[in-house]
């Protein structure tokens, strides 16, 4: 699958997974795609915990009853950033952007490899979920789980959500008024 096909096929998946484990080699390949993402000043601020231990997977899965993909995940990738980011360029830190771009690389890899996931972010910030998962995964207090990706082979097909047309969001040379 080339990159444009992966971009076209990538979609958020909150549905059920097939009962198939995700091999470590595939998990490693997905995270490698994240490691190869750009980062401000090449500071490479995001770190990753790949969760494939059945007990840990079940503990995290049980925390989010509203999301089938989380509940049925065969593995998780937890993306971790510093709570107090270090400035890397003229007083500016880019750790949120670094994390987001690493995740997008992983979403494309996930799609190209026939897996499906959902970018879990908002829910982590509620009721101490990020902290609970951080403690389960041995994340130091100075860091926080910023994005969580459940993983598995999708049991159902879902289309990408419709996107606004080019003309409504992009222009040459001058932004529309
Ligand atoms: C920054 C960001 C935060 C998101 N947070 C969540 C989340 O907490 N839970 C969730 O189910 N989906 C989350 N999503 C997925 C979006 O809801 C999804 O990308 C959007 O509806 C568009 O659908 P698509 O990914 O299929 O194009 C998040 C996506 C982004 C980029």
Written description of the protein model:
- The chain is α+β, with helices and mostly antiparallel strands and 177 residues long.
- It has a single domain, classed as 3-Layer(aba) Sandwich (NADH Oxidase).
- The protein is built from seven helices and three strands; from the N terminus they run ααβααβααβα.
- A three-stranded antiparallel sheet has the order 1-2-3, sandwiched between helices.
- Helix 1 crosses helix 5 and helix 2 crosses helix 5.
- The radius of gyration is 17 Å and the shape is globular.
- The mean pLDDT is 96.
Helix count from the secondary structure assignment: 7
Proportion of strand residues:
5-15%
What is the 3D form?
Answer: globular
CATH architecture call: 3-Layer(aba) Sandwich
Number of domains: 1
CATH class: Alpha Beta
Mean pLDDT: 96
Provide the succession of SSEs: HHEHHEHHEH
Low-confidence stretches: none
Report the structural category: alpha+beta
In CATH, the topology is named NADH Oxidase
Cα(first) to Cα(last) distance is 38 Å
Q: What is the helix content?
A: 25-40%
| Small-molecule components bound | flavin mononucleotide
Reported for the largest beta sheet, the result is: 3 strands, antiparallel
Short synopsis of the structure:
The chain has 7 helices and 3 strands. Helix 1 packs across helix 5 and helix 2 packs across helix 5.
Question: Main attributes?
Answer:
177 residues, alpha+beta, NADH Oxidase, three-stranded antiparallel sheet, 12% strand, globular, binds flavin mononucleotide
């Amino acid at each position: 699958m080339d990159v444009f096909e992966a971009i076209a096929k990538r979609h958020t998946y909150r549905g059920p997974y097939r009962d198939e484990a995700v091999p470590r080699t595939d998990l490693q390949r997905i995270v490698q795609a994240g490691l190869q993402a750009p980062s401000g000043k090449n500071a490479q601020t995001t770190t990753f915990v790949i969760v494939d231990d059945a007990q840990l997977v079940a503990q995290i899965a049980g925390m989010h009853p509203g999301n089938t993909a989380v509940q049925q995940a065969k593995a998780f990738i937890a993306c971790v950033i510093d709570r107090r980011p270090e400035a890397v360029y003229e007083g500016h830190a880019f750790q949120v952007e670094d994390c987001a771009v690493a995740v997008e690389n992983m979403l494309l890899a996930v799609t190209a490899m026939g897996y499906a996931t959902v970018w879990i972010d908002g829910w982590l910030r509620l009721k101490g979920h990020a902290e609970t998962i951080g403690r389960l995964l041995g994340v130091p207090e100075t860091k926080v789980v910023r994005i969580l990706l459940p993983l598995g082979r999708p049991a159902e097909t879902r289309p990408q959500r419709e996107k606004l047309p080019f003309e409504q969001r992009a222009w040459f040379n001058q932004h529309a008024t």
